[in-house]
Amino acid sequence: MKFFKLPGFTGAYLKELLHYKSALIGLILLALLLALSLYSIFVYPGSKAVAYWRGEENLWIKNPKNAFPEWWEIFTGGRRLPRTLDVYPGSNQYSVDAVRGMDGVYMVNLSLTFDYYYDEEPSAINVFINGTPSDKVELYWIYPDGRRIFLSNVTLGTERTIYYLGQDIPLNNRLAMDLYRQIGSLQYSPTVEKILFTALAREFKVQKGTYKLVATCLVSDPRKFSLELLLYGKVHGLAGTDHLRRPLEIALLYGTPIALAFGVLSSVIVALVQLIIGVISGYFGGPVDVLIQRVTEIYMCLPFLNILIMISVFYKLNIWILLVVIVVLSIFGSGVKTTRALAMQIKEMPYIEAAKVYGAGDLRIIFMYVIPKILPTLVPSIVISVPSFVFLEAALSLLGLGDPLLPTWGKVLSDAESQGALYKGLYYWVLEPSFMLIVTSISFTLIGFALDRIVNPRLKEM
Amino acid sequence: MSEDKMVLAVQNLKMWHTLRRGLFGGVAYVKAVDGVTFDLATGEAVSVVGESGSGKTTLGKTILRLHEPTDGKLIFKGRDVTHTPEKELMWFKRETGLVQQDPYGAMPSFMTIYRILEEPLIIHRVGTKEERADLIFRALEEVRLTPVEDFAFKYPHMLSGGQLQRVAIARALILKPSLVVADEPVSMLDASVRVEILTLMRELQEKRKISFIYITHDLSTTRYFSEWIFIMYAGHIVERAPTKTLLQNPLHPYTRALLSAIPDPDPENRKRFREVPPGEPPSLVNPPPGCRFAPRCPFATSKCRSEEPSEYEAEPSHYVKCWLYAYAGAR
Amino acid sequence: MSAVLSVKNLRLYFTTRKGVVRAVDDVSFDLKKGETLAIVGESGCGKSSLARAVIRLLPRNVHTYSGEVLIDGNNVMKLSDEMFRRLVRWRKISMVFQGAQNSLNPVLKVGFQVAEPLIIHNNFSREDALAEAKKYLRLVGIHESFADRYPFELSGGMKQRAVIAMALITRPDIVILDEPTSALDVITQANIINLLKKIKSELGLSYIFITHDIALTSELADRVAVMYAGEIVEVSDADEFYYKPKHPYAEKLMASVPTLRTDKKLDFIPGAPPSLINPPQGCRFNPRCPYAFEKCLKEPPPPYEFEAGSFVRCWLYHEGRR
Q: Is the CB of B106 less than 8 angstroms away from the CB of A354?
């Protein structure tokens, strides 16, 4: 059956579509979304993306938590926000000096130098120490103005230790007390990160210049010993990071093909099934029609979202099962009534009568004469419905009912909500997925309404 | 007429549509065809002339079994097809064709001309793909839509009304039927094109010896087209005669009124009034008792108003359903 | 007799996506008092647009609307839309539209609809207007009681009569009839034409009778204008026209109309009417004209006046070939 072959005049439709500026914008947006989808499928194919999103084995440990996107600087009025600085062994900022001591213990002096010219302090400071258990490390901090303060003594318990400076409360108290003694009352709340980067003054102002982290260590094997200083920025990447240090770009990128596929598939499948049911109902009439219509009416009264929530409470849903459930819950919807009405009109048209005269059977008439006539009129509504299915998936994820493993836009929103993003002022976390949803919606809606103007002759503009 | 020369025999055919009157009203019937009898020979062309509401279109559709007759008999090529179920009628559908009034409505707008003509062939499993292509191109040539390659792959909206009607004719003839019903085939076309289409149909009809039922309201076209004219009024055939005879000597008062109502292009027309009966055709739901034309007939008697007349052969081969000719004896 | 309506160089062009449609392209004609001018042409020739151009019922996408329309000597094209509505439309000229039976408002009673023009244009009170409406319903052969009925209760012929009453009730001098009998059966058509003849003489009207049916025009026409592709290609007196039309198109059109009472050889016109967006160069009929010669392909022929008030646009006459 030539049912699925695109009729020859879809080319004419496309040409006609381009006459409408709104459709042009919609198409451009859609092209962008498609490009993003293709890119993300190549760069993060399925399982890879999911693995990245799980963030196993501290995959993202070198990312800051809850970092804003880099372009957020536009809103800070000129203040440069700190990027993550990684001072690692082997770089020219890292100097080692090892001297052999007695009893097979080496004294190692490490000096990690870096320049700091940002207008704010880092969000966190971590020191990664690799070595042999029971190595001892003494850490000192040297400001650009020359002040040197003692930070802490660390004894390695395992081969790899992470010293979270910001969470060292005794350190925080000690440094704060020192500052109070030197300056008096402060006009800011003295966290470790702020203290380590401030100039000596009442207000907080970043001391710009060259800093050093100096470590005097007693190690058993200098070859296995290294230090890495991580100054976590407040901004990271194109889209920022979330509470698990995952770059949001991944979720936004990977969410694009999911959203598009989900939206388009649901919309198309629901429309097609409704079409067939409606046409059968309208064409045959009689008891078949009555039965289908009553079933449809009852179906339409059922509370869609409630049932969906119920189902997802009892059964763990992955995204494709979710699609099937949504389709099943939608098939006897209002589309059945509209296609039935259309089928009833078309049934009376002369060419159907002609087909009966030359012997076409009912099934042939339905699939090759009635449905192809209805399909073009359905295309606009299929396109316009796509965003609602995309939103539906996002809403379900937000309610915690979606696929827990897949990085989708809804999942990002869900994380943002449960982490209190807006309360914490992490606006980007909410704005970015919302922006993607809005762009998708605008794109399909503009195209869909322009298509509507083409297909529905009464709406045509002269 | 011997059986093998007769393509169609219609006997007292009735086609009533049911009208449901609201929740509590009873059922009423639109008696669109209410007792029609005639024969049609092989290769014979007949014009069925009547106004809208006369039942002529329903007659045509019932003959093609688009409706199942309410009563009476429909005998096609010797076989009774009155109540045959649809699935057993494939042979009948191959033998019959239809040309409709609206050329654009009669074509599926999403199929090319080629596909439109291929459909009947596919349904009746005629030939291989190549053989079908051959038949289709020849059909297009026959209706003079040349060059055929140009027309075959166009869509209906790209053709004019006249061209589309040729496609309709090609489609009706492609299975080589014995009977074609043409329902007002030219009324939606421009005057200058009508003659072209009618001439084409007549040529093909004569060449292939197809029986034709040409349904129209325009009496003036019938003389160029058919051997016989049937005049229909309110569900009945009120007069049947060979074309020339009827036009020169109309007998039924309605036929007379019809003929006097039609103008020829004559400048003297504006200086006089036409003598035509007042009123309009009756409703087919509640036709008047007796002769249906009686309310408007200038010659109506009380018998006309109470009893329905039978058909009388007023002259050889000239049949009239009117009490005025009862002296001739019932047919 | 003076011209009660004089149209000079009337143009009406529409803008569409595909280009500018030149529906009425430099049309001129006169209508004398008490006469019927028939405008005959096939679908798409612009005759309905011409009617609307005269009575100024224009759609939104008008590209050009120019020329002169003189009623009783006054050029009404100069009037503003509001003044035209008040003084001319339905006062001097009214119109019966094509498919008029569908232009009755289904939710208003027939009597009220017939009375409405009086209420709007002549400031009649509702009661007075309804009384007058009943008079006119009688005039067109509908019993008064139908004034209280709704359009669906009337037959096709009666609806047409009601619409005619609506066009007459403000006593215009000129009535434009655009296919007034198209959806009616032949006998009803004859009755309506009889009615039109009767009221024309009783009320002293002048008609512009627009139709595609040449035979029907002879029922009313004193003069005939033939329209083709937006232009008037011939205007003749009825007595001459029906025996021998002058323009080749008119000639072929006449030959393609089957007649009931005479046995004539039917002819047809090959090809199709031209697009009004891109009419052919030169004479617009030249692609289909059996007598076309080189001049026809290059220059559009101006009107050739062969009698007072009658002309034909054809090079054959200018060149003396006919």
A: yes
**Dist CA A208 CA A119 (whole Å):** 8
B58 touches chain C (CB under 8 A): no
Do C11 and C25 form a contact (C-beta atoms < 8 A)?
A: yes
Q: What are phi and psi of B203, to 5 degrees?
A: -60, -50
Quick check: B243 and B229 in contact, CB under 8 A?
Answer: yes
Check residue A241 and report its DSSP letter: B
Is residue B169 within 8 A of residue B214, CB to CB? The reply is: no
Nearest CA in chain A to C61: A462
What residues does CATH 2.60.120 cover in chain A?
A: 79-232
- When the pLDDT of each residue in chain C is averaged and rounded to a whole number, the result is 90
Cα A262 from Cα A440, distance rounded (Å):
12
- Report d(CA A316, CA A188) in Å as an integer: 48
Strand order in the sheet with A124-130: A85-87, A226-232, A124-130, A160-164
Strands (E), B202-247: 211-216, 228-233, 236-242
Looking at the predicted structure, is the pLDDT value of residue B165 above 80? yes
At A35 the pLDDT is 92
Angle at B303 between CA B300 and CA B304, to 5 degrees: 40
Q: Which of A313-322, A359-368, B208-217 has the lowest mean pLDDT?
A: A313-322
Q: Which residues belong to CATH 1.10.3720.10 in chain A? A: 2-54+246-460
- Is this structure's pTM higher than 0.80? yes
Residue of chain C whose alpha carbon sits nearest to that of B54: C185
**For C227-236, what is the mean pLDDT?**
94
- Could you tell me the CATH superfamily of domain A2-54+246-460? MetI-like (1.10.3720.10)
Q: Which residue, among B256, B321, B184, has the nearest Cα to C187 in the 3D structure?
A: B256
Write the pLDDT tens digit of every residue in A380-398: 999 999 999 999 889 888 8
CB of B106 less than 8 A from some CB of C: no
Given A9, A357, A376, which is nearest B98 (Cβ)? Answer: A357
| Residue from A149, A129, A125, A143 nearest A217 by CA | A129
Q: A-contacting residues of C 1-60, CB under 8 Å?
A: 15-17, 60
Q: What mean pLDDT comes out for the span C117-122?
A: 89
* Cα A75 from Cα B64, distance rounded (Å): 78
To the nearest whole Å, the CA of B32 is away from the closest chain A CA by 18
Cβ-contact A259, A96 below 8 angstroms: no
How close is the nearest chain A Cα to the Cα of C18, in Å?
9
What is the three-state SS of A395-461?
HHHHCCCCCCCCCCHHHHHHHHHHCCCCCCCCHHHHHHHHHHHHHHHHHHHHHHHHHHHHHCHHHCC
Of C153, B171, C69, the residue nearest B185 (C-alpha): B171
Residues of A with CB under 8 A from a CB of B: 7-9, 349-351, 353-361, 364, 369, 372-373, 376
Q: Assign a CATH topology to domain A79-232.
A: Jelly Rolls (2.60.120)
| Closest CA in chain B for residue C183 | B52
B61 in C contact zone (CB under 8 Å): no
Max CA separation in chain C (angstroms): 66
Mutation target for C interface from B214, B269, B283: give the one with most C CBs within 10 A.
B269
Pairing relation of β-strands C206-211 and C36-40? parallel
Q: For the beta carbon of residue B7, count every other beta carbon within 10 angstroms.
A: 22
Structure tokens given for A356: 């009966």
pLDDT in tens, B238-260: 999 999 999 999 999 999 999 99
Taking phi over 0 as left and psi of -120 to 50 as alpha, with beta for the rest, A227 belongs to beta
**CA of C17, closest CA in chain B: separation in Å?**
17
Q: Which two tokens stand for residue B194?
A: 């009508």
Task: Give all chains having 3 or more CB-to-CB distances under 8 Å with chain A.
Answer: B, C
